[in-house]
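pls design
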C-alpha cells in the first residue's frame, strides 16, 4: 500500500522551531522527488519545499527561504522539514506530497502562537 504519514506537528511559540517528518511506504522512495505543502485556514494549499531523489537538489517557496530546511533519509524512507524562526503566518496543516503518483499524506497541524 502506497502511503505517506506525517508527524511532528504541534503548538510552538513565535520564533520557535519544529521538525516535521514524513515516512513513506509502498513505493521506491529513494527514486522519488518529494515535496511539502501547507494549507492555512481559509486559504488554498501552497507549495513549501521540494527535494530531489538523491537529496541534493532542493527548492523553497520565497516565504520560507532561509528559515526552513528540507532533507531526507532514504535508508529510513523519510523526508523532513525543519522549521526555524516560526511566524504566525506559518500556522497551517503541513502535507507531504509524492509528485509522481499525486499522493498526499494526511497532514500534521502546526500552530504558532505568541
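designed seq:
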Amino acid at each position: 500500500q502506497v502511503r505517506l504519514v506525517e508527524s511532528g506537528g504541534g503548538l510552538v511559540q513565535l520564533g520557535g522551531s519544529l521538525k516535521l517528518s514524513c515516512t513513506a511506504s509502498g513505493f521506491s522512495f529513494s527514486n522519488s522527488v518529494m515535496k511539502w505543502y501547507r494549507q492555512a485556514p481559509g486559504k488554498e494549499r501552497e507549495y513549501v519545499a521540494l527535494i530531489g531523489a538523491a537529496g541534493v537538489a532542493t527548492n523553497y517557496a520565497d516565504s520560507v527561504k532561509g528559515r526552513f530546511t528540507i532533507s531526507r533519509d532514504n535508508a529510513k524512507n523519510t523526508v523532513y522539514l525543519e522549521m526555524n524562526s516560526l511566524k504566525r503566518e506559518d500556522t497551517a496543516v503541513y502535507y507531504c506530497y509524492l509528485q509522481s503518483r499525486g499522493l498526499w499524506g494526511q497532514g500534521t497541524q502546526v500552530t504558532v502562537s505568541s
